[in-house]
Design a protein that fits this description.
The chain is 45% helix and 19% strand. With 424 residues, it is α+β, with helices and mostly antiparallel strands. The radius of gyration is 23 Å and the shape is globular.
Amino acid sequence: MKKFINFHGIKILYAKNKTNKATYCEFGINYGAFEEKILGTAHYLEHMLFTETEKRTHEEIEKESFLNRINAHTNFDSIRITFDQSSRLIEHCFEVCSDIFFHSKITKDYVEKERGIIKAEISKKTVNPHNEIYFKHCAKLYENKKFLYSAAGSLNSVEKITPKVLTDFKNKYFFRENFSVIIVTNKSLCSVKKLIKTYILPNLASKHEKIEESDNTPFCKKTFVQIINKDIQNSIIALNFAKMDRPKQPLQLLKHVQIWQYITTLLVSKHLKQRLREEKSFVYSISHYGFKNNMEKLFGISFETDNKNILPSLKEVKKVLDEVYEKGFSKEEFDDFVKKAKLSDDMEYDVPGNNVSNLLHNYKNYGKFFPNRLIEKSYYSITLDEINKYYKENFKVKNIYLSIMTNNNTLNKNELKKIFIEKE
């Protein structure tokens, strides 16, 4: 059983798990690194959660964190605290986590002490080329330099963070309508609401006025982004497709996203994998992602290839796109894909923790909570004709955004333009 409710302004995503006597819970604010004026502020605030409170010393907080598997994380759109413990200790964990999340002290001494730890964390962070091309690509597309850094910020930016900066961020974004709780437990929803009312509600004021959105929305029309990275041996290529006119009605938007998932997955599984293998290239990911409701959703296909195979591989990709544009996807490949998708779905829905997180992600993307049965019903009601029609309407050159991360600085951009820009 899964429910999504609004409880005094707080969004609760509740999943009943009768087969397990443990509880997994995460709660926090739905604003993160995108909203900060100084890079790294949200992540810095997360570190300050484990200082000390009026009730607990730093050592006591560390002990509680270890015993109850309490952790915290920050990304571009949230700061959250989590615990994973036996359900008989659920009230204790709620009390400890709420004390840590709302009442940890932000003092000058703690800020200075944590600065060195965070800088060391940033310095030691290893760069994953696949992630790097994704973030640099988004930085260009959205004209937002925050993508170029991790949520931790940079060595220079964390020097500018003071207790006042952290307190101002906390005062601005910690309120009920901006707060959510995700919980998978064998306890009743009634008992969970009672815990939230006791330990979370008293710490959050209501703020009905609309919060100012960050300026991530402009969609840049730059079609080609080249990133030189001398530390990688092969080249990584990301091809993203963006539809400019997203439906506003949640159910239509859900179907729109699902159709694009069909298209990109069919392109890779039925066409690109084999063709790129012949060019000695390897497709490593298909992405369907977007940040915040007001930003465009991108659908991406990424692959890795030897430097000398960049142009041949891209020509092969373009050839596949053109062939599908002319002929459409066949009934045989569509039916085969749907059959395999139904088999894999049976396994996917058995993972409560992942499933609950996905449901909250769906809410943030579509502005509405969709139960799994509705998502599944919508997905399998999509027809081959709808898919081919969407492809014809949207898989055009003007909707293609290309990123290449390579150590080859002699790449001929004019050749690339001939493939993807000048031909319709």
